[in-house]
Amino acid sequence: MPPIRDKFTIHSRAVVCQDVELKGDITIGPGTVVHPKATIFAIAGPIIIGSGCIIEEAAIIVNRRKEVMRVGDNNLFEIGCRVECPSVGNFNTISTRARIHHTVRISNYCVIGAACLVVPTDDETLDDYTSIFGPAAERRTWSGRGRIQEADLRLKHAEYLREMLPKFNRLRRGDGA
What we know:
By secondary structure, the protein is mainly beta. Helix content is 12%, strand content 33%. The chain has one helix and 21 strands. A hairpin with a 4-residue loop joins strand 20 (130-133) and strand 21. The longest helix is centred in the last third of the chain and has 22 residues, at 147-168.
């Protein structure tokens, strides 16, 4: 296997801390915040991260497939989660220490609970508003109530981080768009 070529495209309005581990062909969209100690590896194919995402400490995003891994807009990857799925929609929450296998595709407004392990044997696409929770990774469909309030809260959270992280961390600059 040839060595992985590093190519980072970081939007000028994105906040990416210096001590983030990036490998491969990675594009980070406007307004996205990547905390220190996060890891993003594009091993086989490129990773494209949309706008307004928050990737917290020790979160790991890996693309092991040759196809492009697309992460939509306004997603929250909490501390210590691991995501390998080839497609993540918009406004999803991957909670602390959750793990998502590369056979899963996530739609929009999904919530993967803390420490949940999502490892189906066949390829699977989670429907919109799916919530996975508990030690047995039980599933439920969210009614969508409170969706607007959650979106507003997520936008405020990202805005606060874009303001505060540069005060206490060195930032990484890409070739920018």
